[in-house]
Amino acid sequence: MPPAASAERRVYKIASIPADGIGPEVISAGITVLQTLSKALGTFDLAIEHFDWSSATYLKTGKYIPDGGHEKLKQFDAILFGAVGAPNVPDHISLWGLRLAICQPFQQYANVRPTRVLRGTQSPLRNCKTGDLDWVIVRENSEGEYAGQGGRSHAGQPWEVATELAIFTRHAVERLLRFAFETARSRPRKLLTFVTKSNAQRNGMVLWDEVCEIVAREFPDVKLDKMLVDAMTVRMVLKPESLDTIVATNLHADILSDLAAALAGSIGIAPTSNLDPTRKNPSMFEPIHGSAFDIAGKGIANPVATFWTAAEMLAWLGEKDAAAALMECVERVCERGITTPDLGGTATTVAVTDAVCQEIEREFSRKK
Asked: Where is the Isopropylmalate dehydrogenase-like domain (predicted)?
C-alpha cells in the first residue's frame, strides 16, 4: 500500500528488476527521469532498491527469484520491471520463472495497457491523427489461456500428446470485467468494447460472455459493444476512432495490445501496468516491448515506453499531477524530433533520456 498523503515529503519504496536484454538500459533511463522529476517537484522521494533477478542469475543459480524473494517484494509500494527473456533460456522457462511468477502469486489480475498516438509521433495508419487512436486495453492477467494447466505424455513418440487448458472462473472473470467497466466509466466516452471468441470456444468463452452481460447491468451509463477477436483486429486498423476502452482475455489482449502499440507508432512507446486493484500486494509496471536482444547494448532502445510506464506507476501511487507532467515533457521531446530509430529518428537512448530530463527541469523552473 502506498503511504498516506501528509504535509511531509512522501517516500515511495520501489523495487527495480531490470532483468534481461534492453531491460537494464531502459530501466536505468526510467529511474534517471523519475529522480529528475522527484527533485524538480520536491513533493515526493523514491527509495529504489535493485534486484539482480535475470536469466543470467537463473543460469548461475537455477532460480530467477531466490528463496524469500516474494516476501521481500511485498515490502515495496511498487515494482518497476524491465523485460525477461534470453536466447540461451527457453521462453516458457524465463516467462514463468520471473514475470508470471510475480504477477500470479501477487494477484495482479488487471493488466492495463493504454495506447495513443503521442504528439510528435506518427501512426502507420494513413489517416490516423493524434486523438483518433486513444485506447485503454484491459487484459485478464491471472488465468485464461495462461493458467499454466496442461501437460505432455508419451514424449518423443508419434502419438505424443500435449494439452494446454484455458481456465475461466466466474470469480476471476467477474472481478476483471468489473474493473474494465469502472475504467470505461472513468473515461470521457464511457465506451467499452468486449472481445470474445465464443462462436468457436463454447465453454470458457461462453461463461466470459454471460458474466459480461450480468456485470453490464451495474453500469448502465457505460455503452457496451461486442466483437469477435478476429473481427476486432480489422476494426482496430480500419476504424481506430470507434474504440476507447477494450477488455479481452489473457491471450487475446496480449496479441491485440501489441497490434495496438504498432498502430500507435511503435511497440517502443507502449506501457503496461500489472495491477492488484485490492492493493494487498504491490503492483508491477513494465514496458511492453520485451528484452529485444537484437538491439541490446547498441544504445538505441526506445525509453519512452518506460517513461510512460513510470508515469502510470506514479498515477497508481497517487501522484497523478506528476504523472501528467512527465508525459507532457515526453511528448514535447517527441515533438522536437528527438526520437529513437524505431520512431524514425536518430537519437540514442541516452539522448532521449537527457532531453526529457532537461524538459522536466525547464518546466518546473518556469513554475517556481
From this structure: 13-356
- Residue 2 identity (one-letter amino acid): P
H-run or E-run covering 266: none
- Contact, 133 vs 125, CB < 8 A? yes
Residues 6+ apart with CB under 8 A from 73: 15, 79, 102, 106, 282
**Which strands make up the sheet holding 283-287, listed edge to edge?**
44-50, 10-19, 78-83, 283-287, 271-275, 110-116, 134-140, 245-248, 191-196, 223-228
Asked if 219 contacts 185 with a C-beta cutoff of 8 angstroms, the reply is yes
Phi, psi of 189 (to 5 degrees): -80, -20
Q: How far apart are CA 267 and CA 290, in angstroms?
A: 9
C-alpha cell at 68: 524469500
Query: Cα 230 from chain centroid?
Result: 22
- In sequence order, the β-bridge partners of residue 165 are 149
Instruction: Give yes or no for a contact between 81 and 99, defined as CB atoms under 8 angstroms apart.
Output: yes
| CB-CB contact of 39 with 326 (8 Å) | no
**Contact predicate 55/21, CB 8 Å:** no
Measured distance CA(249)–CA(173) in Å, rounded: 9
Place of cell 515494482: 79
SS3 305: helix
Q: Considering only CA atoms, which of 40, 43, 22, 42 is closest in space to residue 32?
A: 40
For 187-206, write each residue's pLDDT tens digit.
999 999 999 999 999 999 99
Q: 2: which residues sit within 8 A by CB, 6+ positions away?
A: 12, 77, 78, 279, 316, 317, 318
CA neighbor of 190 nearest in space, from 228, 227, 212, 216:
216
The total of other beta-carbon atoms located within 10 Å of residue 364's CB is: 17
Q: Which residue has the cell 527533485?
A: 39
C-alpha cell at 83: 523485460
Q: pLDDT digit string (tens) for 213-234?
A: 999 999 999 999 999 999 999 9
Instruction: Outline where DSSP puts E strands in 197-314.
Output: 223-228, 245-248, 271-275, 283-287
163: left (phi over 0), alpha (psi -120 to 50) or beta: beta
The pLDDT tens digits for 82-123 are 999 999 999 999 999 999 999 999 999 999 999 999 999 999
3-state secondary structure of 74: coil
